[in-house]
Amino acid sequence: xxxxxxxxxxxxxxxxxxxxxxxxxxxxxxxxxxxxxxxxxxxxxxxxxxxxxxxxxxxxxxxxxxxxxxxxxxxxxxxxxxxxxxxxxxxxxxxxxxxxxxxxxxxxxxxxxxxxxxxxxxxxxxxxxxxxxxxxxxxxxxxxxxxxxxxxxxxxxxxxxxxxxxxxxxxxxxxxxxxxxxxxxxxxxxxxxxxxxxxxxxxxxxxxxxxxxx
Length: 214
Known about the structure:
The chain is of the alpha+beta class. The chain is 50% helix and 15% strand. The protein has 10 helices and 4 strands; from the N terminus they run H-H-H-H-H-H-E-H-H-E-H-H-E-E. A hairpin with a 3-residue loop joins strand 3 and strand 4. About 5% of the residues have low confidence.
């Protein structure tokens, strides 16, 4: 995501993080406590940090209730002063027009791969999907192909908070094929692993590994 969004994302998160749950329930009273719990699939995982658990939650809200994500989160983001670029408009259209899809569930093997890649990229200051040994995404996932029919990966740089990361990848500014957004909202994927690690040059990087569990 462009640098101009980083400050706005941080400001937006700081101003609104304490009232998310209240706003969710106020605007969408038809969503019960069990609905919110169903979106929070990573809440009991000891290997995920609080921010990583929140990333899974926000992605699942966007998948399971795109209208809620639009009204509760995206509208507030725009009110915080973010530019309504063509990519932001495109995300609005996507959320307003999509059919709700099932939640992503967390997976330890995908987390392990995300953690390894985020750590490797972070300690060396590199970016991209290739490993330090030059293995591409398909090669990196070779040992996991027995468990998954399909897989994908998102990488984000410069954000450390959960909602900022999710917004960055959903808006997908200047990514013409919207590959990150498509991964998050892909109904084929049913599992995910998420890791946020320090980055030598970008300060932080987040890796999300998605899979279609067999």
